[in-house]
Amino acid sequence: MTQQLLMIEDDTRLATMVGEYLRQSGYGFTHAATGTSGLAALHESPPDLVILDLMLPDMDGLEVCRRIKGQGSESPHTAVLMLTAKGDPMDRIVGLEIGADDYLPKPFEPRELLARIRAVLRRGGEASGGTAGNGHKVMRFGSLEIDRDARAVTVAGNLCELTSYQFDLLVALAERAGRVLSRDQIMEAVRGRELEAFDRSIDVHMGRIRSAIETDAKDPKRILTVRGVGYVFAKQQD
């Protein structure tokens, strides 16, 4: 079945070029020029992934992302790939904080866009029927349970909201509980893109994971920061 992509982008020329390239690569492609029409298209026929420009004429792209990913949304599991202004880290940080799965700075090469799309959709495919990985299917650390088959995380029976990428990051840490991992090692473990210089995206994702699984994200007990090195997932947890 052909995977469907929706691009919300007011630059019609860019959208036409991207659409032709992605159709040639085997994807279904729909374009919306405004945030309002994009949300309407998503409601009518939910795609597998949204390519979302943050600079839209009628609505802040971050608000569009919030509506796609927010609590009560009809499409919280729809993947979102943000297109951000090059050299503006705040947009990408905020976007990741509200649930975007990845970002790509403009201008970009179509091949890089395709690679990012494939990586995000692959993670989503694993979420709906991939392999469980090594070891037990359910990992338990005190009241925290990570079910790799269902790709679900619960604390004391309460479901935690994580993006597919954040789930992969949590599993990578949990599988190596007690080991201090650098940011590069964590990214390599989830087969993600290489870190850009001074890229804070991994820290943003860790903050989101902590908000979901920690009793107090400001005083974490499950995922600990090792200053100057990286992170460690605690073996012993309540």
Commentary on this structure:
The chain has 238 residues and is of the alpha/beta class. It folds into two domains: 4-129, Rossmann fold, CATH 3.40.50; 138-233, Arc Repressor Mutant, subunit A. Helix content is 39%, strand content 22%. It has helices at 12-24, 35-44, 61-69, 89-97, 110-129, 164-174, 183-189, 201-213, and strands at 4-8, 28-32, 49-53, 79-85, 102-106, 138-141, 144-147, 152-155, 158-159, 180-182, 223-226, 230-233. The strands form three sheets. It has a five-stranded parallel β-sheet, sandwiched between helices. Strand 6 and strand 7 form a beta hairpin. The chain is elongated and about 55 Å long. Mean pLDDT is 85; it is low at 127-136 and 193-198.
Summary of the model, kept short:
The chain has eight helices and twelve strands. It is α/β, with parallel strands linked by helices. The protein starts with a strand and ends in a 5-residue tail after the last strand.
Topology:
Elements (H helix, E strand, L loop, with lengths): L3 E5 L3 H13 L3 E5 L2 H10 L4 E5 L7 H9 L9 E7 L3 H9 L4 E5 L3 H20 L8 E4 L2 E4 L4 E4 L2 E2 L4 H11 L5 E3 H7 L11 H13 L9 E4 L3 E4 L5
Which segments are poorly predicted (pLDDT under 50) over 5 or more consecutive residues?
Answer: 127-136, 193-198
Number of helices: 8
Structural class: alpha/beta
| Helical residue percent band | 25-40%
Radius of gyration: 18 Å
User: Number of folding domains?
Assistant: 2
Order of helices and strands: EHEHEHEHEHEEEEHEHHEE
Number of strands: 12
The CA-CA distance between the termini, in Å, is 44 Å
The CATH superfamily of the largest domain appears as Response regulator
Strand fraction band? 15-25%
Average pLDDT works out at: 85
Top-tier CATH class of the largest domain: Alpha Beta
Assign an overall shape.
elongated
CATH fold type of the largest domain: Rossmann fold
What CATH architecture label of the largest domain applies?
3-Layer(aba) Sandwich
Major sheet: arrangement of strands = 2-1-3-4-5
Q: Biggest sheet, in brief?
A: 5 strands, parallel
